Amino acid sequence: MPDLDAMTIVIMVTLVVVAALLVWMSLTMASVEGAVSRVTRASLNNLILEVQTDADTSHFVRMKKISRIHSVQKLIANRYATIGACTFFRIACNVLDGVLVASFIALWGLPLWMQLVAGMVFALAIAIVSVLLRPRSAGALKPVDVMLRYSGVITWAVVLTPFAHIGSEQSAIKRSKDSNLSDDEALEKIQIEQGKATIDRLVEANDFDPEVSEMLRNVLMLSDTLTREIMVPRTDMVCIEGTESLEDLLKLCSRSGFSRIPAIGDSVDDMLGIAYLKDAVRATAFNPAAAERDVVSIVRNPMLVPESKPVDDLFHEMQRTRQHVAVVVDEYGGIAGLVTIEDAIEQIVGELADEHDRTQHSEPEQIGEHTWKMPARTSIADLEEIFEVDIDEDDVDTVFGLLTKLLGRMPIVGASAVTRGLRLTAVDSAGRRKKVSTIVVEPAHVDADGETELTTDERTGQDHTQTHEEE
């Protein structure tokens, strides 16, 4: 082994220091790679507001923090170029570490094969350290803190790698062709997908109950679900005219099972407000004469929401305003439907049912000599086969659809209509939305000769329909 002079020792010490700095740079760039993809512009804007309103810090400290946040905002503006620069420096640092160690061994006069082995062993050691420390995971846990701490280093890395912008521009062009999402929206989508993957891994590892995992997936999907997807469409809304009496409102609430009913004027688009059952009961309980008052006298102003509103935002707004029902409007200002806070909850926990819901028969059931009780989804073909009639309705497929068409509105319990000599009567409802679930079908009134009464139009072969609602 050769004698080492002072200059050689200085070079060796310098190589050791530079190699240590390169190791630190490599780990830092790895943590930044994990942080860049998780920082949004919104989080940085909120942080600026927090710093500006912090009365416990001096003006100099606030300006320094804000300046650093602005630096991070510039880096996030082209996050793919920033990631490319960090990746380049991480790889370059690992390569240079091996070269420096090989040079360090060469100064001792050792053979070439030992220099190569030393460089490879050191590179493997750095890889093992990276696996144990998991710098990317650390950056993902506190992305904003990591970006603020190393903003100066990252800025220099981006400046020294102008070629990273070329790849980022090509990636941006490709993303714009494949998706219309903004940068932050695309990032949020990626994070949601990562959350779903994490939940799937926990389920596979038996760390979570499957039902709990399904609820977590549903929570992640709330931001992707729009109000129009969970609302009750306007055709299925049970409404009452504002000129009806409170007594009529009480009867309608009793028959429909709803405690909040929209009050309308000339049409559904003429929304007067929401009539609450408890308000009607409060008005009439100790003053029977108030039962003759108009419904419009007790209506409350409705909460209006656009049909494009994400369900998570809808849920939080209804929580904040303490509203359980909202009217959904379309882009033209018309009434699109109705949504309740239970509709949003069902997106997380699944369908809700109460103690009044009964198990429904899945097949038609004969309850009299010529009377059948049919599930609402019974097909028209089954109805025709049982009663040996020709309904001839091409635009509806089920008994429920037929009754809805005959009434011209959403049927409720007690609603009845006659067509082709058959009377259809809604007799039961199920589910939280109280939708008609069972319909009784029987021949219409019979005359003295024992034949079914038909209208004049029916005798001539025309489809004349009579409708009736039992009080």
UniProtKB/TrEMBL annotation:
<feature type="transmembrane region" description="Helical">
    <location>
        <begin position="112"/>
        <end position="134"/>
    </location>
</feature>
<feature type="compositionally biased region" description="Basic and acidic residues">
    <location>
        <begin position="456"/>
        <end position="471"/>
    </location>
</feature>
<dbReference type="InterPro" id="IPR046342">
    <property type="entry name" value="CBS_dom_sf"/>
</dbReference>
<feature type="region of interest" description="Disordered">
    <location>
        <begin position="446"/>
        <end position="471"/>
    </location>
</feature>
<dbReference type="InterPro" id="IPR000644">
    <property type="entry name" value="CBS_dom"/>
</dbReference>
<keyword id="KW-1133">Transmembrane helix</keyword>
<protein>
    <submittedName>
        <fullName>Uncharacterized protein</fullName>
    </submittedName>
</protein>
<dbReference type="Pfam" id="PF00571">
    <property type="entry name" value="CBS"/>
</dbReference>
<dbReference type="GO" id="GO:0050660">
    <property type="term" value="F:flavin adenine dinucleotide binding"/>
</dbReference>
<feature type="transmembrane region" description="Helical">
    <location>
        <begin position="6"/>
        <end position="27"/>
    </location>
</feature>
<dbReference type="InterPro" id="IPR016169">
    <property type="entry name" value="FAD-bd_PCMH_sub2"/>
</dbReference>
<dbReference type="InterPro" id="IPR036318">
    <property type="entry name" value="FAD-bd_PCMH-like_sf"/>
</dbReference>
<dbReference type="Pfam" id="PF03471">
    <property type="entry name" value="CorC_HlyC"/>
</dbReference>
<keyword id="KW-0472">Membrane</keyword>
<keyword id="KW-0812">Transmembrane</keyword>
<keyword id="KW-0129">CBS domain</keyword>
<feature type="transmembrane region" description="Helical">
    <location>
        <begin position="146"/>
        <end position="166"/>
    </location>
</feature>
<keyword id="KW-0677">Repeat</keyword>
<keyword id="KW-1003">Cell membrane</keyword>
<dbReference type="InterPro" id="IPR005170">
    <property type="entry name" value="Transptr-assoc_dom"/>
</dbReference>
<dbReference type="InterPro" id="IPR044751">
    <property type="entry name" value="Ion_transp-like_CBS"/>
</dbReference>
<comment type="similarity">
    <text>Belongs to the UPF0053 family.</text>
</comment>
<dbReference type="GO" id="GO:0005886">
    <property type="term" value="C:plasma membrane"/>
</dbReference>
<feature type="transmembrane region" description="Helical">
    <location>
        <begin position="80"/>
        <end position="106"/>
    </location>
</feature>
